[in-house]
Amino acid sequence: MEYIQSKKYDFEDVNGMTLKQLNQHYKLYEGYVNKVNEIWTILNENKLYENPNPTLSDTRSLMLGQSYAVDGVKLHELYFSNLGGGNNMPYGDILNEIQKKYGSYEFFKERFKNIGLSMRGWVVLSIDPLDNNLHIYGLDAHDVGTVLMSYPLLVMDVYEHAYMIDFGIDRKKYIDVFIENINWDIVNERLSNYKKTNRDFPRKYRCISDKINIKKTYGWANYCKD
Ligand SMILES: [Fe+2]
After folding, report:
1. Fewer Cβ close by (within 10 Å): the C or N end of the chain?
2. Using an 8 Å Cβ cutoff, are 184 and 91 in contact?
3. If you measure from the C-alpha of residue 225 to the centroid of ligand 1, how many angstroms do you get, rounded to a whole number?
4. How far is the CA of 11 from the centre of ligand 1 (A)?
5. pLDDT tens digits for range 121-172
6. Domains of the chain by start residue, with CATH
7. Where does the Manganese/iron superoxide dismutase C-terminal domain start and stop, copy by copy (predicted)?
8. How far is the CA of 80 from the centre of ligand 1 (A)?
9. 203 contacts 148 by C-beta, under 8 angstroms
10. What is the number of other CB atoms lying within 10 angstroms of the CB of residue 55?
11. Which helix (H) or strand (E) holds 157?
12. Burial, 54: exposed, middle or buried (Cβ in 10 Å; 0-12, 13-18, 19+)?
């Protein structure tokens, strides 16, 4: 059964990376889409597997495969769509948010690069409804380091497969080229979508916490009067 389909991306407007590199990467993404369909087909048979076990079991394999493949699809779609074709300098609301959190775009860029050189899988600039602020999260794999409910704005793949054909092991050079290719139009669009749908979330979240009696600890009482 085909539950999801691969999305199409135009790589012609990516500068400094070859179509060979990008098309090979895209093939990996298609593999994750196929695996999601395969796993969901199995799970939707609603079969109960025998001998559930947290060391080795059929159910465990399916669960680990599911989160790895689903996150693999989502992260690659975010990555391909924020790569190329746009304004390569931040502007507008995302620039305001970056300056507010990191002081300057230059500092943000250095921290983003630094995290890119420190992780094995991904760098994700997110806005987190926990405090309604920007955070850069580092992932060692699609499903290792992902943060629940944070809203991804800018995603960079740092797995070797993302750059090895064009840059060998020179990840630093790849990251520089990636940064030059960021589509800030898309990043601003994601930020705008977050603000439209999540604006009240931090307050509501804290009010729920208040109801379970931790307001005195964190001083959130004023959020919950209405
Ligand atoms: Fe990748």
Report:
1. C
2. yes
3. 46
4. 15
5. 999 999 999 999 999 999 999 999 999 999 999 999 999 999 999 999 999 9
6. 17-226 (3.55.40.20)
7. 92-190
8. 9
9. no
10. 5
11. strand 151-157
12. exposed
